[in-house]
Specification:
There is one protein chain. It contains 17 helices and 15 strands. By secondary structure, it is an alpha+beta fold. Strand 6 and strand 7 form a beta hairpin. Helix 1 runs antiparallel to helix 3, helix 1 crosses helix 17 and helix 7 packs parallel to helix 17. The longest helix has 28 residues.
Length: 514
Amino acid sequence: MARFKAVNMSPRFLPVVLEQQLVPGTFEYALHALIDSEFDLSVLAAKFRNDETGAPAYDPAVMLKIVLLAYSRGLVSSRAIERVCAENVLFMAISGDTQPAYTTIAAFVRGLSDEITAIFTEVILICDRQGLIGRQMFAIDGVKLPSNASKAKSGTHAELAHQAQAIERRVKSMLKEHRKRDRRSEQGQHPDLAAERASRQERLDALKSDAKSIRAFLQSNAQRRSGKGPERKSNLTDNDSAKMATGKGVIQGYTGAATVDASHQIIVAAQAHGSGSEQSLLIPMIEQARAFATAQTVMTADAGYHSEANLKQLSEQAIPALIADGLMRRRDARFKGQDKYKTGPDPLYDKRPAPKPAGSGKFRPEDFAYDSQKNTCICPAGKRLYSSGQHCTTNGRTHHKFKGTKRDCVPCALRDQCLRTPETTPIRQVAFFHKGLASPLRHTEAMKRRIDSAAGRALYARRIATVEPVFGNLRYNKRLDRFTLRGQPKVDTQWKLYCMVHNIEKLAHHGYAQ
């Protein structure tokens, strides 16, 4: 019979040299060397006043190492970070075997709001000294992530006031019903009556508390307005966050925006914004990144950041830029026929309506018989549309507008080919723009010419390969799937910490401190 060496699982006292656990070339080694030799954390140390009295505090440098190492391993929960500090030898090594409580870790991250920008900038400056910033092209983009906020507790001030009124009416109705039930109940016949009353009172107290919190919120918070004027929805749990439409549905969260250098994918600017509008983020992100740019650095962004106002401001400040518009790919022959390669939506996650089958294109204006001399328009079904305006203006361009009638459009057999949403749209409208008119969007037309040139297309094509791998690294490798804090300053701190992890990882890959 075969014989094997015995397996002894009894306790062992094994010598571990903590410093030897930090191997050159790894992220943790670069992080340890970077914070100990490069960072000036005196501003964090100045927060403590325990020189003569009070217990010793955890070193801010050690706390920063722990948090950044945890984020690099996909650990964001302060309780999970506390656990690995006690169990993982790598965390023991980088912290000198200190084991801060989860409350200490959470308080440290929350308290970095005022200092995080300076610390983040220090990492960028070190990347620059290592020659990792090329300054030829910066790519700007953002990722929308859920936050620690309830999507159900959001709405305009009018909607929240209506919600409070509905809760108060429900409380009155419940009180009235409870009094009736109590009068019908005879003493001693219901042994559980006291417990039932306690349960009722608990529900009533919860409803009253909800209504009271909504009323207090409305009194202490003004209406939120978008840049274009309409009221934005407020949120009771985190009023800095916003409702945002994504490919996976609507979320309550923040946009984590980043400006990335094309040379080695170093993040040169990062900011978390409680807004789903990307157009409003373009200029602030460029302003943050200009400290690391030159006069020749080209700023690139996708169509979400495109607006005439943004392009005008870039032109006035003489900032080289390539900002795509919504029709850029349609003008590019390389993308002709790309729709046949698109996969269908995932019914479990994608809540958008299924795309129309191939060959189901809608009627376009050229399918209508328009006679400018006789002022008439005949639809593909042979019905006459009536004129609803000869000199209408849209984006500065003049056009002649026609409308159908319910009498003709509702029973029409071609509704599905004519209307985008035939189930909700009763009639078809069509506009014919006057020919030969110059576009009033002067800066947009200039950007189109620039981005459609051979040089513009070649340079813009590098944008997606510059910025998308950064978000892929943060979201999937580092498992950043949501922000865990509330309030824009704290969420911005968490976003910058993750961006620091990415930059330090780049330093480690390029031989920092070896």
